[in-house]
Amino acid sequence: MREPxxxxxxxxxxxxxxxxxxxxxxxxxxxxxxxxxYLENFVQSIFDSLDQRKGQTLVxxxxxxxxxxxxxxxxxxxxxxxxxxxxxxxxxxxxxxxxASCVIRKHGACGGVILSASHNPGGPDGDFGVKFNISNGGxxxxxxxxxxxxxxxxxxxxxxLGAGDVDIDRLGQVxxxxxxxxVIDPVTDYAALMESLFDFGRIAKLLSSGRFRMCFDAMxxxxxxxxxxxxxxxxxxxxGTVINGxxxxxxxxxxxxxxxxxxxxxxxxxxxxxxxxxxxxxxxxGDRNMILGANxxxxxxxxxxxxxxxxxxxxxxxxxLAGVGRSMPTSRAADRVAAELGxxxxxxxxxxxxxxxxxxxxRITLCGEESFGTGSDHVREKDGLWAVLxxxxxxxxxxxxxxxxxxxxxxxxxxxYYVRHDYDxxxxxxxxxxxxxLRRQLPNLQGRSFGAFTVSECDxxxxxxxxxxxxxxxxxxxxxxxxxxxxxxxxxxxxTGAATLRLYLERFEPDxxxxxxxxxxxxxxxxxxALEIVQMEAQTGRTCPSAVT
Length: 549
Ligand code: VG1
Ligand code: CO
Known about the structure:
- The chain is an alpha/beta fold.
- It has 17 helices and 28 strands.
- It has a seven-stranded mixed β-sheet with strand order 2-6-5-3-4-9-8, sandwiched between helices.
- Alpha-D-glucose-1-phosphate-6-vanadate is lined by residues 23-24, 118-119, 283, 287-288, 327, 350-352, 369, 371, 373, 492-494, 502.
- Alpha-D-glucose-1-phosphate-6-vanadate binds at residues 23-24, 118-119, 283, 287-288, 327, 350-352, 369, 371, 373, 492-494, 502.
């Protein structure tokens, strides 16, 4: 039913001071988002930041976490009151982050609102989040998020249509005021894109051969419906290949973070007596991936390097790579592959928004982060299931197991032992002081030795985007010990509580005879140096990390 224009309400509001987006959108506790006008203020600020919204299409969906449905209804009514012509919303309010990126690009939308706090826990006591993606399908760049933040600081009104809720469980079009709401299947466009990139025939043969078993853990998050459709229905993997495939508002009480610490059920299976050949998991919003072989963990930095080295085997990438991108703290394994391929390797700050320009400008084809994120120019987000299909395509062509292929990769390029240590729950002041003290120390660190390690370079990472020349500073402190080792210190920008200090440790080993050592052992002395440099115990009272990935 068409609502008259006078159903548009202009509601008075006052600004919240804390709506600056972090590494990936605005993330807060659910209870913060449930405050009257909190979501509305931020969404109106997003809309006000757009030059053009009249007559435009917007994409909307989320990872199905607690508060997703309420937020979808509010945003639909706000979009209708703000002049959008059409909103494409995933059925049931569901869209994975990479699928949203795909839909924005395919349907020429001016942008999309993705409701997710990604790998953060969900439920009434968990986290909620709002991300805004621009017309290229990628996360809004820093200039845009800063503009949204500035608007949120001086907001006085928001606009919303006085109307009933829209039925978003049925596919098709509904009028909402002067706007059309089109409820789309969340999987269709994405699955078609995957079919255009990978050799589905060959993967299907592998999955139905009876000689290859895999397990995909959707962690009761958004990838469930995508994985059921693509892996089981289109590729013919046996039913049951996908576990925890039902998206739940609280992710079944688990942390939807695909790391060995959180994907417990999958790890048990993959390290069991008769493990499947291939295991994978994804996160809350479907953009991360963890790759496992039988009794074998693939470090995300290695995964990026491996995909780059083998991309020529995959139809969508057979024509070669323009270049590779990795976030600064990510291991330098990809750099070696890029050098061998004779293509550039870009080093960006943490967060997918920094890859957007490089992808749009055709400078890179593949990119990734140490935090279980890999992607390419097919969308403008990292993409969990895409990475799984990429691996499956290579496995199908090579006819070897994950461990054999990766150890062969190390023999060719050398191995980058890599681990991330997180120090959670630090109070903000302690964490900021630690970083400030370290920053001040930088001029004196150069040339200093710590045991066997001598600092060859150290800096506070700053990035100049080669496409638009924008500069982003203070993106983490790098302490480099030649090619052989590196430590990076950085504060997390996705938490909703106390601060998290991330310590990234990397050690290069060229000798194949030393490629089968346990990572913990290999980086132990480097970890000790990392603590010594920042006087961790004196500054924080901590002697060991809260999480190791
Ligand atoms: C973390 C990761 C970063 C990733 C970001 C968003 O950020 O380290 O690599 O891009 O999460 O991923 P931070 O600032 O906490 O280190 V997602 O899948 O949670 O949107
Ligand atoms: Co995510």
